[in-house]
Amino acid sequence: MFAGRSVHVTAVRRKNNEISFLEVPKTEKGWVRNLKKIPLLRGLVAIIEASAKGSVHLNFSAEVYAEEEGEVKQEEPSFFGKISLYLGVAVVGVLSFVVGKLFFTLMPPAIEYLAFNNLFEGRIYHNLLEGLIKIIFLVGYIYVISLTPLIKRLFQYHGAEHKVISAYEAGLELTVRNVQKFNTLHYRCGSSFIILTVIIGVIIYSFVPYDTFMERIIQRLILLPVVIGVSYEALRITNALRDIPVLRYLGYPGLWLQKLTTKQPEDAQVEVSIASFNRMREIDMRNA
């Protein structure tokens, strides 16, 4: 999936080599655009929007896959039926993100408390251990799901997207040969945002005192929007500094995580990503 100025485009290759597209125009309320201009708040808006839209595009890919596998094709829904379907999928996507984020936010402090609370004093040390447990959870979860063929293929397309963007930013013609020259890693990836929430969380939590385990859990819930907002701003900063020799290392933790969330794509997958990117640019230029 590629997001342009006016549209989000996803491309899927069918068994007959035909490439199908899902084109979702960008439509934003004025108040949403205003929120995206406010530091910290724009991070919350961006992550909710990405979860919702990402779910819609993944659902499209799943539908095409099911159709190609010979499952019964359902009757084409009406316009309002499509709107209801997309809205439902978007809500599920947002809820899935919220539930997952709550799990990775609340389980590590609970485990840290049960295992290490009576061993030593010091809030900062306990917060560091909590952060380490979060990273172990995160890396372990991504590694395990990456072993499944479906997720491995998803991660290959993720890598193909990064390669296409890198080739475009380098000013090269978007051919499979040119695109495959580039790395699967990219500074502006959401994977970088995930690892930043862990690092930023440890820093923020260390400045807020707590006396009991329940206070610690409530504190994590209350500060979760703050952690997300600050992490988003940190992601923007690391991307802006990526060409400065010393400061570019600030973005390395996210790049390291991308070694799990991206895989080397096949040429056919790169072709699909190029087609999606070109369709997005074509629509953007038409609507300019």
Q: Could you describe the 3D structure shown?
A:
It comes from Paenibacillus psychroresistens. Keywords: Membrane, Transmembrane, Transmembrane helix. This is DUF1385 domain-containing protein. By secondary structure, the protein is mainly α. The chain has one domain (2-287). 68% of the residues lie in helices and 6% in strands. Strands 1-2-3 form a three-stranded antiparallel beta sheet, sandwiched between helices. Strand 2 (7-13) and strand 3 (19-25) form a beta hairpin. Residues 78-90 have low confidence and may be disordered.
Short description:
Helices cover 68% and strands 6% of the residues. The chain is mostly helical and 288 residues long.
Which characteristics define this entry?
288 residues, mainly alpha, three-stranded antiparallel beta sheet, 10 helices, 3 strands, 6% strand, globular
